[in-house]
Write a structure and sequence with these properties.
Chain lengths: 288, 288
């Protein structure tokens, strides 16, 4: 940050940065697996689109950002990492409330690769609860701008914990299933895949599932579904940069399918990880 | 922060604090006018309620917080100040994604008193534009928890600037007027005051207007109104800790009333500032 590389313990943002005080920021997270970024181009595209929509300006161009991200990973020493890039509104030296007067700031960091599901959960499938909390609607905040407005997701998460579940799904304004804290959701029914169309983050792993389906000859569509339809699915999985494709085997009190990781989920997961070494899908972390 | 008093330039929060990365935080802002906090009790009540609703725990009790806020003001040297207290989810030493494992943190700071409207705007009334952006609805985030989810308000603000206005109002999900970036709104029509009831922050200055109306024998109610009703008002004003009661004399292209600060607005504003020296409404900033 601010042109310096620091240990994570020293990476701090001013309390007066609007990125903190108004969550006036956008970000993206790409992961590195065995020394290679996965689909970095797609993450950078989304990040730059979000910055433009928020009317911010970065002090670095695309290739400079790529170099900074690589340097973060190399300095961290992690072979597999979770790499976050952030653009905040910044602050105004005069305490002005006018966002046009703020100096936008760029921050990037690399931490160890993390997953929504731990190893045991990946093998047996996650237990998810559906909350009545409504995801912030697109008329309030454009979900294609990846943002830190998570209080709805966090409320859902606490409600899920109260029910003994491991993570949460929240709904959209029509009471259809939307997404969870940091992930999209897919259902498989009679061989067809489906993921919510509206009011959700257009996740890169979600996009990747569509791409993998094309390659495997599977049919996938973006269209909304309700709780009952989700619980009646043959297979359910969630998708996130933090963990990839992760099976869900229980929703509220309903066991999904036969209660084990399904065949389609397994096929997609295997191909997903194979792609991490494919130069068409991944790029090496490079030194200066 | 962290038990230390620092110059503002050194007040920084960890990039990994969920208060930054997920805007998982609540806050409150009280102001000090000529050495006295204004309605500190009401601000502390709201702050503590928000913390409880977010299932956070503060490392300090109420009287300790009062002492910290006073110390911030005294060390800052400001006679009139804008004093913010923040509770963030904090971070987890293990990068856990589980908010229950985070250590909640308290931050407080004092900066010079700021206002939504500058001196000239206070005298002639603000020019406001109404945006189509919808305030994050209560089914997504409980507006009684004062929060930093401002991207909807900031979008409205940029749209207002595009139209040559000075600040913005955004709407609720039913297209009624909601609130603006950091303020509530009131209209006066035929001697009756009205402010939106639903989906808005229960502002302390908004509450203060109700209290002042009682004292002045004015009738005020919380009930929703649409754009046309607002534009047809005799007087319009906004309320915020950052500036108090501030007249609005133009909305979009419509001049409100006779285009000057109205009599009711002026009467309320005068009484509002008189109350700042009243021990029933204010408390002195105290040394240790």
């Amino acid at each position: 940050m601010d042109g310096q590389y620091l240990p994570m313990s020293e990476a701090k943002v001013s309390v007066l940065d609007w990125g903190f005080l108004h969550s006036d920021a956008t970000y993206d997270t790409v992961h590195v697996w065995e020394g290679r970024f996965f689909r970095l181009d797609l993450h950078l595209n989304r990040f730059f689109r979000g910055i433009e929509k928020l009317r911010m300006k970065l002090p670095y161009n695309r290739s400079e950002i790529e170099r900074i991200l690589s340097t973060c990973v190399l300095l961290s020493g992690h072979k597999s990492a979770y790499v976050e890039m952030i653009c905040t509104r910044g602050g105004s030296p005069t305490f002005s409330r006018d966002p046009r007067e703020a100096e936008n700031r760029f921050i990037a960091f690399a931490v160890p690769f993390g997953s929504v599901a731990n190893k045991e959960q990946l093998e047996r499938g996650l237990h998810v609860a559906i909350s009545d909390t409504v995801r912030i609607p697109p008329r309030s905040i454009d979900p294609t701008i990846k943002n830190y407005h998570w209080l709805d997701l966090i409320k859902g998460l606490f409600e899920a914990y109260d029910q003994g579940a491991e993570t949460a799904l929240i709904v959209d304004i029509n009471d259809n299933v939307a997404e969870g804290p940091g992930f999209n959701v897919f259902m498989v029914k009679d061989g067809l895949l489906q993921t919510p169309a509206n009011g959700v983050l257009p996740g890169i792993t979600r996009q990747t599932v569509f791409d993998l389906c094309s390659e495997l000859g599977l049919s996938a569509s973006a269209s909304d579904f309700n709780r009952a339809e989700l619980k009646g699915a043959d297979e359910v999985f969630i998708t996130s940069t933090a963990g990839g494709i992760m099976s869900v085997t229980k929703i509220d009190d309903t066991v999904i399918g036969d209660g084990r990781v399904g065949a389609v989920t397994r096929q997609l997961t295997d191909l997903y990880w194979t792609k991490h070494a494919d130069p068409a899908w991944s790029t090496p972390v490079k030194g200066e």
